[in-house]
Amino acid sequence: MLEILSYEFIQNAIIAGLLVSFAAGIIGSLIVVNRMVFLAGGIAHAAYGGIGIAIFTGIPIFLGTSIFAVIAALLMALVTINQRDKIDIFIGLIWAVGMAIGIIFIDLTPGYNVDLMGYLFGSILAVNDSDLYFMGFLFVVILLVVTFKYRYILAVSYDSEYAGLSGINVKFYYTLILVLSALTIVVTMKIVGLILVIALLTIPIYIAQNISSSLYSMMIISGFIASFFTMVGLYLSYTFDLTSGASIILVSAFSLIVFMIISKLRKKS
Question: Which of 132, 142, 168, 245 would staple 193 via disulfide (CB 3.0–4.6 Å)?
Fold first, then answer.
């Protein structure tokens, strides 16, 4: 088993898995607490437009997808702040249009040979050095923002009305959370794929939410839980030649079921 650690692609996969898992733990906690799961799902699917544009123009996939995802996040922030009664319609529209743009640009790309399955269902074993640099940079940005702005983010997440009355710019921090969510979704897509990204951003957080006493502890605990799911899923993926993203999510789902059963038994006893 230890001999597989000598392979560079396995080393890259482990580093990427840990970076993304802790980023997902931090941002996923904010997504759940702020009830942004549907918004995050919309951003994830809209980001497919960035993949298509990146393939068509020849720019790095991460760069193109990040720019497109951030634009989608800004549009969703604008809509949810000013048109809350029409939020479902606009999210569905951005979701569908984003994917349609991606498909059209891929169709227009002559002779493309990109493995799109890797972006739909994850390809952690294909992570390269440039991917790691991007993931590492994003993780540092998330840490810095959450560390230095934690008090404001906490206030906006749990009581936005009181935060606004206290002089905190609620719209700014709401938008900031969505933008960081968009960037986290982009890097998480490399691990579990576009289709499964929301599961990694919610399952570890659900478990952590039930065993933590604060937002800060929930972020840390969910990061460790997500890392455990990712490492076990990676091992199963490599050992049995399975799709990495699906393996990670099935490990997460199985663990969630076990956790819920244990929780019920404890309550009864």
Answer: 245
